[in-house]
Amino acid sequence: MAIDPATTKILAQLALKAAADEEARKRIIMIALIPVISVLLILTMFVYIITHPLDYLSTIFSGNELA
């Protein structure tokens, strides 16, 4: 499914206009970075819990409850 040249030209012009506007550029960067950073933080949390289970559990429970 190809895009016709007229639509491609309009999309390219809109992208250049958005890239030229500094506020729109910052908004585009934030929209792209927030999901990536969120996924990385979630994955990091799971890796930490998997590799340090007793350390994580000791923060939730006191020493007597772990035994």
Give structural notes:
The protein is an all-alpha fold. It contains 4 helices and no strands. It is elongated, with a radius of gyration of 23 Å.
The amount of beta strand, in percent, is under 5%
Shape descriptor? elongated
Number of E-state strands? 0
Nearest-angstrom radius of gyration?
23 Å
Q: Main β-sheet: number of strands, strand sense, barrel status?
A: none
Helix/strand-derived category reads mainly alpha
Low-pLDDT stretches = none
Note the run of SSEs as H and E. HHHH
Rounded to the nearest angstrom, the distance between the terminal CA atoms is 62 Å
Tell me roughly what share of residues is in helical segments.
over 70%
The averaged pLDDT comes out at 82
Alpha plus pi helix count: 4
List the helices and strands and how they pair.
Blueprint: H1 5-20, H2 22-51, H3 53-60, H4 63-66
